[in-house]
Design brief:
alpha/beta; Rossmann fold; 7-stranded parallel beta sheet; 11 helices; 14% strand; binds NADP nicotinamide-adenine-dinucleotide phosphate
């Protein structure tokens, strides 16, 4: 896909799952990459995979690592300043880093709600605001945001997760409207079930990771298939893209809009994992 040829692409959540797969696919398409997450060792491994997927003879300085914690908003600002010469050149930002939840509301500590908003929503907003002035100066750029089908309708045992993803839609849909006269684009990705470690890493009510793979996740769309579909959708500058997993998830998104009261009854009876 020529859209990515020579582009500088910054991916958060690049150490694992969807972000890792996007990074490898983009390496094959001639993009220069900036990989971010908390874990340097995992990012180094992804960098090595990306470099070996690249055909460019000068590939050694085409993959950069910038470690960051999306929950640490003050530090994000200083990290951006330290790496401004690289980060400010970003053409496409994949706001992908995030964490899920598996716990009923009554069993969930307030700290878990705080963490989900800090990582999934405020960390993403902070990074995007740091980059926005550079996009505006060049009148070009693309924000890609990994939301979720749980950002389109509330899902049981994910009250805080759904809320954080709904918040992303509010922010980025408003931002898209503000930018309508520019060449800066926003694409919201709404995955259903993709086979990654998301359920292993999901927070339970006390803030510990669930540590087990949900059945629906294990049966989800292979992440490599998902990332190819996503990259096609982003290249065609889709405003919103539903992808992956159970057919029912996509039907549910449409049903929640067309038959909202019927949908409320169905989702109330479901025990989604
Ligand atoms: N898999 C699905 O079915 C599915 C469905 C809908 C939406 N999504 C969304 O897709 C995105 C990627 O998830 P995934 O499925 O690829 O899961 P994953 O394999 O668990 O990857 C999550 C990524 O987010 C990073 N991350 C987590 N907390 C972070 C923090 N505090 N600061 C910086 N980075 C952080 C992790 O890196 P470190 O641990 O190295 O920091 C990792 O790279 C998430 O936003 C998730 O909500 C996934």
């Amino acid at each position: 896909m020529t859209y990515y040829q020579g582009k500088k692409v910054w991916i958060t959540g690049a150490s694992s799952g969807i972000g890792k797969s996007l990074a490898i696919e983009l390496s094959k398409m001639g993009a220069e990459l900036i990989l971010s997450s908390r874990k340097i060792d995992a990012l180094e491994k992804v960098k090595a995979l990306c470099l070996s997927a690249m055909s460019d003879a000068n590939r050694t300085n085409k993959v950069h690592i910038v470690c960051l914690d999306l929950a640490n908003h003050e530090e994000l600002e200083s990290i951006f300043k330290e790496n401004e010469s690289i980060l400010s050149q970003t053409d496409i930002l994949f706001n992908n880093g995030g964490i899920s939840q598996r716990s009923f509301a009554e069993n969930t500590s307030f700290d878990v709600y705080q963490k989900l908003i800090d990582i999934n929503y405020l960390g993403t907003v902070k990074i995007s605001l740091l980059l926005l002035p550079f996009f505006k100066k060049r009148n070009s750029g693309h924000f890609v945001v990994t939301s979720s089908s749980a950002g389109k309708f509330g899902v049981p045992v994910r009250t805080g997760y759904s809320a954080s993803k709904f918040a992303l839609h509010g922010f980025f849909e408003a931002l898209r409207a503000e930018l309508h006269k520019t060449k800066i684009y926003v694409t919201m990705l709404c995955p259903g079930y993709i086979k990654t470690d998301i359920s292993l890493n999901a927070l339970t009510g006390d803030g510990n990771a669930q540590g087990t793979m949900d059945q629906a996740q294990a049966n989800g769309m292979p992440v490599e298939v998902m990332s190819q579909k996503v990259l096609r959708a982003v290249a065609s500058k889709k405003a919103e893209f539903l992808v992956g997993g159970l057919k029912e998830t996509h039907m549910a998104v449409w049903m929640s809009r067309i038959f909202p009261s019927l949908f409320r009854k169905i989702i109330a009876k479901s025990r989604v994992t």
